[in-house]
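Can anyone check this?
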Amino acid sequence: MNDYQMGAIESRFADIIWENEPVSSTELAKRSEELLKWKKSTTYTVLKRLCDKGIFQNNKGTVTSLISRKEFYSVQSERFVAETFSGSLPAFLTAFTARKNLSPEEVAHLKKMVAEYEED
């Protein structure tokens, strides 16, 4: 499992990149100023940090992702279940549904996912 991690603010910034990629670093700085109220220097500092983590790349002023948003959040979910529930998805679902009832649509979706998994 890769060691991709981001804090809440970094995640908001990453979403801006994922929603606009490929994006120029200049445009990214403008969007970060508008949406996050960041100075240009803050944008470039956080971008460098996320590039160093292997999540994004800045190639000659064009920023793109090295992993997709879906892949990133999949890794985060796997890590959470592994660290918190000893890797047990049933234990996670039991805890998750202890205080929140699943809607009929959610139950149907989960059943469909399991059925598709069993077919593979």
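Reply from J.R.: I decoded it. Residues 13 and 32 are 7 Å apart (CA to CA).
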